[in-house]
Amino acid sequence: MKHDDDLTGAETAAPAHGGYKIPALRALSEITTSLSSDSDLEDLLERFLGTMVKLAGATAGAVRVVTPDGAHLRLVGTIGLPQDVVTREQYVSLECGICGTAASTHTMESAGASVCRENTALAYFGDACKRVIAVPLRNKGRIMGVYNLFLSENKPVAEDVALLFDSISEHLGMALENARLTRENIRITLMNERQMLANEIHDSLAQTLAYMKMRLAFLSAALQTGDAPVAKKYLGDVDDAMESAYSRLRELLTQFRHRMDPRGLIPALKDVADDFSRQSGIRVDFASPAADVNLLPEQEVQVFHIVQEALANVSKHSRARHVRISVAMAGDQYVVAVEDDGIGLTGTEQTGGGMHFGMNIMHERAERLGGAIEAVSRAGAGTRVELKFPAASPRRTRKA
After folding, report:
1. Is the pTM of this model over 0.90?
2. 263-400 in CATH: which number?
């Protein structure tokens, strides 16, 4: 946060009348460029505070953003404010003074400096400040923040500057709203992935551990009665279950450590195919008619993990020599398929053990895409696992 007790300086002076055009064009150009490249939004707001101060011919300024509770404004950056003001006004009510008026009217407000003294009991600059301006940052009827500008002369803001401030208000308000939505989507994605991981652990590990606990009770009873053959059988059951649980845990860790390629889904699936072929010795062909697919990041993650799970099932159950992965469009649907030339699966194999757990996981991920999974298999003729989901369903992926 910047602050400077020196309220004078030629560089803060406003341009002469009629000289706002070039600074205005530069400001709008910089905003457009910054909105697409700046990752630190608060730094962006603070940098534009200097622009606002200069355009208004102000001696000082502050920028505040609305807190998550929607009831307060948090101080993000200042220019020229006394340190006691900076310290005491880290948070103020959204309804406070001229800021509250600008927030309620959604328009730029201008008033004598006494309005701030009345609401905060702080003499900002003594007689050095004559007028205060509040420029709300807004987006679709929602207030995202406020710029405060403090002028040493009690004069109205020039009309062309007011129009520029209105444009800046909308652009930066949009940037704040986009940043809020991005944070919200990240939180939703993280919560969904954590829930998915919990579900996968429950399906593939919790049930196996429950089975082991039951077998250990039988083993204990057999040992107490001296029934060695039965004890040996239950010991073998526990050993097999332990090996299965350990194997599944390694698979889960591998899947969640394998990060999506930042270039997108198609490159990520190609990498998965190459890694699977190297590790399993099974030849993998990847086919996609397009260089890329138009999916949201959270949709790409679901497809990515479904393909990983399908390949894990191929490795464990199919005895295949060749696998084909394809991503295509069929009408208004995406079709993602993993097909092998293995031994196929009987009805018992499809409803039991790891294959059953894996299919449950894939079905759950497909539901998050608004789609469905179908597994078609014939003994000795291989298995085809097919995912279908709507091509135009981005909002459905936000389901909690």
Report:
1. no
2. 3.30.565.10
The answer to whether 10-182 and 263-400 have equal CATH topology is: no
Domain ranges of the chain: 10-182, 263-400
* pLDDT (tens place) for every residue of the chain, 400 residues total: 444 443 333 333 444 444 445 555 666 666 656 555 545 677 778 878 888 888 888 888 999 988 877 888 889 889 888 888 888 888 888 888 888 888 888 888 887 766 665 555 455 566 677 888 888 888 888 888 898 898 888 887 777 777 778 777 777 777 777 777 777 777 777 777 677 677 667 666 777 888 889 999 999 999 999 999 999 999 998 888 888 777 777 766 666 665 565 667 888 899 889 988 998 899 999 988 765 677 887 788 889 989 988 998 888 778 889 999 999 988 889 999 999 998 876 554 444 444 556 787 788 889 989 999 998 887 777 899 999 999 864 433 333 3
Domain 10-182, CATH: 3.30.450.40
Contact 336, 387 (CB under 8 A): yes
